[in-house]
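the four lines:
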Amino acid sequence: MTGTTVAPSAVLKPDAVRRSRLADPAVGIWLAAAAVIVLGWIVVALAGGQLLTRTNITIILSNSVALGLVAVGQSLVILTGSLDLSVAYLISLGTLVAAETMASGSVLTAVVAVLAMSAAAGLANGLIVTGLKVNAFIATLGTAFILRGWIEDNYTGPAGKVSASFQHLGYDRIGPIPVSIFLLAAVAAVLWFITRRTRLGHHMYATGGDEHAARLSGVRTRRTVVIAHVLCSLCVGAAALFLAARLGSGAPWAGTEARYDLDSIAAVVLGGTALAGGRGGVLGTLGGVLLLAVLDSVFNQLSIDPFFKNVVRGVVIIAAVALYARRGSRRTA
Amino acid sequence: MTTLLSMQHVSKSFLGVSVLHDVSLDLEAGEIHALVGENGAGKSTLMKVAAGEHIPDAGTIHLDGTAHRFTHPSQAQAAGVGIIHQEFALLGHRTVAENVFLGREPTRRGLVDRRAMEERTAQLLAELGETAITPRMYVRDLSVARMQTVEIVKALASDVRVLVMDEPTAPLAEHEAGLLHDLVRRLAGRGLGILYISHRLREVFDLSRRITVLKDGRHVTTLLTEQTDTNAVVRAMVGRELSAYYPQRARPEEIGDVRLAVRGGGNGRLSGIDIELRAGEITGIGGLQGSGRTSLARALFGDAPFTEGTMTVANHTLRPTSPRQAIRAGIALVTEDRKAEGLALRQSVRDNALLVTRAIPARGRRSAAGSIGQLLERVRLHARSGDQQVQFLSGGNQQKVVIAKWLAARPRVLLFDEPTRGVDVGAKAAVHTLVRELAREGLAVLIISSELPELIGMSDRILVMADGRIVGELPAGAGEEDIMRLATASADREAVA
Amino acid sequence: MIRSRLWAPSALLLASALITSCSSDIPPDSPAGSKGAPDSGSDGKQSKFFDQAEYKKQLKLTRAAPEGPDGKPWEQMIEPKMADTAQYKKKGSGGIHLCFSNAGVFNPWRQVGLTTMKAEVKLHKEISEFTVLDAQGKDDKQISDIQELTGKNCDALIVSPNTTATLTPAVKEACGKLPVIVFDRGVETDCAVTFINPIGGYGYGAVAADFLIDKVKPKGKILALRISPGVDVLENRWSAGKAAFDKSELDVVDVKFTEGDPVKTKSVVADAISRHGTIDGVWMDSGATAVAAVEAFEDAGVDVPPITGEDQQDFLQAWKDKKLTAIAPTYPTFQWRTPVIAALKILDGKQVPKKWKLPQPTVTEDNLDQYLKAGMPPLHYAMCGCENLPGFPEAWGKK
Amino acid sequence: MTTATAVWRKRGTAALGAGAPVYALLAVLFAALALTNPDFYEPDRFLAFVKRTAPLVILAAGQYLVVVSGEFDLSVGAVVTAGVVVAAELYGSFPEAHWLVISLALLLAGAVAGLANGLITTFLRVPSFITTLGMMLILEGAVFYWAGGSPHGVLPEDFRILGRGSAFGWLPWAALACLAAGVLAVWLMRSDFGRTLIATGDSERTATLSGVRTHRVRVLAFVLSGVAAALTAILVGGFSGVSAQAGRGYEFEAITAVVLGGVALGGGRGSVVSAMAGAFSLQALFTLLNLQGVSGALESTVQGVIVIAAVGLGAANWSRLRRTRTRSSGGTPS
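prediction for all of em together
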C-alpha cells in the first residue's frame, strides 16, 4: 500500500504535463456537481417542484458545512497516506464539550476547549500511527472505540446549552448564503494554502506519495503525518462547533448517526484524492461534498425512499472512482 | 588535498549481529573514492551511516575536522553529505523541481517559492548539459537515465560537498554510464568529494583515485588506483583469484534447431524485428538503454505483446498476448528488476520457486513440488532452508531463486534481462556458469546486458539494437567498439528514451 | 486605473446589499439542556433524566380514566387542558397540505408507525397532499427538513423529533410560520399547538418493574437489559424501573446495554446466568430483543424467569407458545394516528389539548389473545390501532 | 540487502512468527476467564462460547482471504444484515420453503455480492475500500427498500437449527460449521490458490509475470468472503432470529480480528489460523468484560485500548521489516 513505484515510460510525452493538468479530478468533480445541479433542477422541475429556491440553496449549503469541514480535514490525512476513522465520535464529543462549556463558561473558552480537545485527539492518532506504527485504519478505529466509551460513560443524552449568541453561526445567513459557509470557506482556504504553498504541504504530498523516498530526501515524515492528523482533528472540532451552534446543545450521536467517518472518506475520494495518498487536494473534496449535498436535496424534493437514497449514493461513489481510475490509466498508459 | 570526510572506527550491528566492524575511511576534496566489496560486505551500511540514515554504535564522523553525529538524513544533508541511492528517492506524481527541492523547498515569507525552485532547477540542469528535462515535467514521465540525472541535480541543489553514489550506473547503458562518468569527474573537479560504490570494476579503475575494499563488514585495504590492478582488487574482495570469468562458449555441434522465431515483429516501441533463438545457443542483445532491448524481451514474453509480425515457438505459430500464454508455450523471463517483478519478497524461497508451477499447474508440477530440494541445489542456492523469506537473501541468491522458479516450469526458451544486475562478483560467476549449463542442456537462451564484458563473454552471437530495431549482428568475441559503433550509429535520434 | 475607479462603488454596493439582505433564522431564545451525569448502575443515585414530579404525575395518569370514544384509544385524552385553535382555521376551501418531518424509519416501531400514519391520512379525503421528509436519524438534517417544509406552503406541520434538545430551535422557528404538531418525543418549547404522546417512559418502566416485584420472590436477582444510553424515553423507563426496584426487596445484579442487537443480548444473558448462577427476573426497557433474551435462557437449559417485553409480535407469539410469565407494557404505535386527527381538528378551528396525553395500554396474560394476531410479521407492534385502517393487514406486512 | 542484516532480520522473524502476539493475547484472556469464573470451562459453557464466536470466526476467515490479497471488504456487515432480512422475507413469501434451499440461496447471494466487489475492484480498478463501502450502502439500502423497512417473515426452527441447535444434543452445529470453515480455509491457503493469492498480495507484478491470473485470484477471494458472510448470516439468523441490524459493526470487528491475528493490511503476510485466533480473542475479550461486569459503556474503551496495544506490539516487531518493504517498493526503476 505504500508509495508509488516510479514506472518510467520509455518515450517522453511532451504533452503529458498538459494532459495531466487537464485530467485533474478536482476539475472533473466540480463539472459533475454542476451537471447534477442542472439535471436535478430539470428532474425536480418535471416533478413540479423547484430545486433552486432560496430555502433550498440555504439548506444545500448549510448541509454541506458539517460534512465539508470534516472532509477537508480528512483529505489532508488521506493525502499524507493515513486515514481517520475516529472523526464521527470526535464530533459527538466536540458538540458535548462545546455545549457544556458554554452552559457554564463563555463562548470563547468553549471554542478553545473544543479545539484543544480535538488537537489532543489528533495528536494521539498521529502518535499511535507514527510512534506505535499501528496501521492508520486500526489505530483510528481504536481511538474511535475509546472516544465512544468515554461518551457513553459520561453522557446519557443531549447535554449542555449553547449560548444564543453562538447559535448565530448555525442560523444566520446573508441572502441565501448561510454564514457558516464562510467558516467552511475560510477553513478550506487555509488548508488549500497549506497544501499548495507551504513546505508542510509539499511534505504531505511527498509523505503520502512515497514515505520512504520522502524520508530519504530529509522530510520529517513522522512529524508531517502527526501534523496532518492534528489539522484534521481541528477541522473536526470546527465541525463540532458548527453542529453545536445548529443543534443548540451537545448530542452524543451527532457525529455517528450521520456516519461522518465513512461519508467524509467517500467525499474525499469522490473529490479525486487517491486513497493511497500523494495525489489530490482540498478543492476536489469540496466538490465531492457539494455533489452529495445536492443529491440529498434532489432526493428530498422528489421525496425518495431514504433506503433507496443509500443505493444511489453507493452507486455514485463507486462509479465516480471507477471513472478516475480510467482517466488515470489513460494518462500513464 | 584536504581531508573532507573522515569516518573512524565505525561499527554498527543490528540485534547483536555485527554488520560493520571498526571500519575507517577518509575522503579528500576533489577525490573520487571507490568503495568495492561483495554484497553483504557492508558497503551500503557504511554509506548510510555517512548519510545519517543509520546511527553508528561506535566510531566518529568528521566533516572538515568538525565531529558530527547524524540522527536523520536531513542533518547529514545540512552538513553537506548527499547520497544517491540505487533505488531512486523520487516521487512520480510530483514535478522535477518539486523533487529536486523536496525537503529543502526555498521559501519567501514562509511560503514555498516555486519560481525560485524552478529557476534554480533549470539552472542546475543546464550546468549538467541536460536539455531534455524541464523543471515542470512530472518525474513519472521520465526515463530511468533522466531520473538518475534528477537524483544528481537533487544532490547538487543542496550544494553538498560529499556525494555518496550507490551503484549509480547499475541501471544505465554504456554510453549513458560514460556521460555519468564525465559528470562525476566534473563534480570532483569542482572540489566535491565523491564516494562511489560499484560492482563494475572497469569503471572503478577509470574513475577513482583510491579504492577501498570491504569484506564481511571489515575494512580489508585501501589502495591507490594507479598502483593496483583488477586481480588484486578481486582477490581482496573475494579472497581468491577468479581465474576464468566466463564459461566456455557453445561448440557448433551443440547448437540445435530453432526454438523461437519472429518475423517482422513490431509494436509501439519495436519494428521489423527478425530474430531466431536456437536450442543450445546463447543470443546476446546489445544496445543502449531505451534502444528497445527490454521491450523486445517483454514482447517475446507477451507482457507488452507484438502487435504485428509472426512468431513461432517450437514450430507452432503463436503470438503470446499475456505472460501466461508465453509461459504455457515454454518461454521464461528473468526480469531486470528482481525485487519488483521477479520475487514475492515476503514469501519463502520454496513458495517463490514454486510460484509458476502453482499458477499453471500443467506439466510436471508434482515432481517440481517434490524435487524442490534438487531444484535449489541445481541453482547452487545456499539458502539456509526453503522456508526462509527471500527478502533476507543476498542479490545473488535472490537471482538464483528467480532462475529456480523458471526451471521448475521446465521452459524451452529462457530470456535474461540484465542477469547479474546488483549481483556480487562471486555470485556473478556462478550465475554465468549456470546459464551456460542450461544452454548446454538444450535451452534457447537470450541475454540482455548493459555490461559489455558480460555480453561478449556469454554470447555465442550478439544482436545490437537501436531505436527499437535490430541494427546488426556480430559473431562471438566481437569487440566492445564494434558493439558501441552499431549501437550509437543512430544515437542522435535515440535522444529521447 | 479604470478598475480602481470602479472598485470602491461596487464594494459599497456589495456591502450594502449584504447588510440589507442579512437575516437570521435564529429563534428568540434557545433550548435548555443539562449535564449528563454518569449513568448509574444499580446504586442508589438516579440519572439526570429522573424527574420526581413528572414521575409521580405519570404514575397518577396510569390510573386516571381517559376521556373520549371507547375502543379508539388514539382519540382518547387523559386530563386534557383544551387550547383554542381558532386562529389556525383554514380559510377558503381546497385540499389540505399536510407535512411531516420524520426523525427516521430506523427501527420497526417507526416503520409500523409511519405505515399507520399514512393509512390514517388515506382515511381523510380532505387531505390533498401529504409530504414526508425523512431525516434518517440526523438531527442536522431534520433541522434543515423542518426549515424546508416551512417553505413548502404546508397547512400544518407534524414533527416527530429525533432529539428533544437539539430540535427545539428549528421547531420554534416553524411555530412562527404555521401550526405545528409535535408527537412521540417532545421538544423543549411549548410553541407547538399540541404535543401528543402516551403517558410516557416512567409509566412504562414502573409497570414493568411492579410486575416483577409482584412475581419474583424477595432477594430475587433481576437482570436489567437496556438498548443504549442517552435516549431520553428509554432513560425515563429505566429510572422509573430503578426507582421501583430500589424500594423493593429485589436485587438488580446487572444493568447491560444490548444496542438492540439480539446476538449481543444472548451473549449478555448467557454471561449473566453463568456469572450469577441464576437470574430470577428480566426487566427490559424495550421489546426489540425480548425474544433473544428468552431464547438465551432456553439455550442455557434454564427455565425462563418472569420477563417484561413489549407489544412486538414475536414476543407476544413466544409468550403464548412458551407460556411465559410475562407482561408487555407498550409505547403504542397508534399514537401515529393522532397527529393527523389533531391537525384536521386544528385546521378546522376545533379545540385540542395543549398536552394530548394518550393512554398507554399494557398487554397482560388476560388480553394477550386480543392483541396477538396470527400471521403478522415478527417485528410488528400489536398496539397499532390499525386493524380497521385501509390496507390492513397487507400494508403492515402480513403475508 | 546484506546477508548480515539478513541474519538478524531472520532471527527477528523467527522470534515472533506473524501470529505470535495473538496467541499470547488469547492465552492471557483465557487464563483471565479461568481465574475470574472457573466454570467458564465447563463443557456446555465453553461450547456455548464457541457457538457464539463461530460467526465472527467464519467472517474473519473470509476477511483474511481478502486482506491477504491486499484488499479490504467493508461490505461483510451489510451482507450479514441483508442475509438475515432476505431469509426472513423469503420465508414470509414461501413459509414452506426447505431450509436447505433458503440457505443455498443466501450463500449464492453472498457469492454474487462478493463477485461484484471483486469485479469492480479488479477490472474497474476501484480501491476495494471504496468498492465495498459503496456495496455496503447499496446492500443495506436495497434490502430494506425491498423489505419496506423491516422483514416480514419469521425464521422457522429448522432454519435456525444450524445457528442455535446442537448435534447429538451437545455439540453445537455452529461449532462444527466453524471447524469446517477453518479446515477448509487452511486447506485453501495450502492449495495452489492460496499460495498464488498471498503472492498476489505480496507483489501483484511478480505474480502476473509468473503467470498468475491475479484478477481471477482476487475476485475469487472476494467471492469466498461474500460466501463466508452469507454463512455468518445463516448462523446469526439461526442464533438469534430475525433482526433488522444483525450485521451492524461486523465489518470492523472482522477486520480488527484479522489484524489482531498479525495479518498485515496491505497483503502478503499472515496466516488464516491466527486470523481466526484473532476472532476468538476478540470474543473472549467481550465475554471477559461482560463477566467482569465492566460498565456496558466502558467496554468499547477497553476494546479500543487493547486493539491498539496488541497491534502496536505486533507492529513494533515488524517495524524493521516494514522499512525494507517500503524500500523495495520505493521506486526501483524497471
